Amino acid sequence: MMSVSSCVHLKEYQKNRINDAEMALGNRKVEKNELNFQSYREAASGANAGKTGGGCGCN
Amino acid sequence: MIGFSLLCRLNVSAQTKQDSLPQTTGISLFKPIGQPEPSEYHPRGLHIDEINLVSSYYWQNGDHSAVTGGIGTEKVTDISNGLDLKMVWGDPKVKQNSLTVGIGFDHHTSASAAYVNLSGASNTGGSRIYPSIDWTTENIKRGSSFGIGAYYSGEYNYQSLGADVHFSQKTADKNGEFTAKVQAYFDQVKMIYPSEFIPQSTSTVVTSASGTGEGHKANIPSSPRNTYSASLGYSQVINSRMQVMFLVDGVAQNGYLGLPFHRVYFNTGKDTIEHLPSSRFKLPVGVRLNYFLGDNIILRSYYRYYRDSWGVKSNTVGLETAIKLTPFFSISPFYRYYDQTAAKYFAPYEAHSPTDEYYTSNYEYAQFHANFYGVGFRVAPPKGVFGWQNLHDLELRYGHYSQTTDLVSNVVSLSLGFK
């Protein structure tokens, strides 16, 4: 959060690059099942707006 | 495919009713194509905003199955299909509601599941179905949203019920956003034991983890597993080319956290069932940073640090470069590095002592590092993919994954977005 104070305040019309579909900060839908298999095969999960545990036979 | 069938029906309906659909009120299935947007916004009736279909095929191989105590085949195949349908209503300039319903269906085969019964005769196939629903109301003027969701997942040896409440608030200048979510899962693990641990006096012997084999109609007891999580996020636009997001989750689990058909072989040669603590706390912290380089390249990066109360510490680094060959077609090579330390309770085949309090030979808890790399393609032309206006975007992605435990896997996914 340190950099927040030095951010530029953009108007909506200045966000054409920020609003590009491939600039989205979340997981893309096509990645859904990749995250799923990783949660089965790896002990770590979470902090990726995806699964954090529970909901299936994985931990 | 259920998704394709539903989409075709909806599209046919939208096209046949195009001229008669009301523009501002009532229930419509699709926004009519090729008509200009109204110059003034008014509340709109319930209508379908988007439909997403994701299908994947996954296959893996390895030699450390937990069913056979850390040795033996890990050959798995899995095919999964998920369909999300998002409906919205309200005024998109003032306050808008959305209702998203989803349904997913997986079918897998697992070679090691055959050895739940020592004879190797147990069923190796299984299916999972997982419907979900989410309602979100968004106050556009205030930049805030609130929503609730619920989900179910059912497979032969595992049932789960989950729910969440989520909230978001944008900063006054709309360049930052805070998100919060609390979530709970209430799961039931069916106690299906390896065949050698079922007393001979038991009238019904259940030795299949997948449901269609012998004894599948028996009333098998279950044990609960509960998961509670709180997730916080903050995203910020740094400048016209860069934005960043910070994520943190706190996750608490209690109940039966192992699986009853996972064997452990002690250093005495005797086998038993894995035994893990009945609680676990996880703390992952992540950051994403995306940067638009020049006019055609987008760099996406991700880092996560994770640790939990079972002694696992982990780092994850993800890098992806989206190269826009045209404004509507991009190719995205990606790479992900992952490492973890072993859980306190892990030891390989015949390494645990019978005096250990907890024990598992599940290589999910072993020390290893992993590489995952591949490439994705995205097509989103303004006139629709293949000239089909409703097919807004198509993504195809392939990845190859390898662990230092010798587990290797491949996954190919297709995502279709309809508007």
Share in β-strands of chain B: over 45%
**Basic shape of chain A:** elongated
Our estimate of the beta-strand percent of chain A is under 5%
The helix content of chain A is 10-25%
**Cα distance spanning the termini of chain B:** 19 Å
SSE string of chain B, helix = H, strand = E?
HEEEEEEEEEEEEEEEEEE
Output mean pLDDT of chain B.
88
Please tell me about this protein's structure.
Chain A has a domain at 11-41. By secondary structure, chain A is mainly α. The longest helix of chain A is centred in the middle third of the chain and has 10 residues, at 32-41. Chain A has one helix spanning 32-41. Chain A is built from 1 helix and no strands. By secondary structure, chain B is mainly beta. In chain B, the strands form 2 sheets. A 16-stranded antiparallel β-barrel of chain B has the order 1-2-3-4-5-6-7-8-9-12-13-14-15-16-17-18. In chain B, strands 10-11 form a two-stranded antiparallel sheet. In chain B, strand 6 and strand 7 (176-190) form a beta hairpin. The longest helix of chain B has 15 residues, at 2-16. Chain B is globular and about 70 Å long. The two termini of chain B are 19 Å apart. Chains A and B meet through helix 1 of A and strand 1, strand 2, strand 5, strand 6 and strand 7 of B.
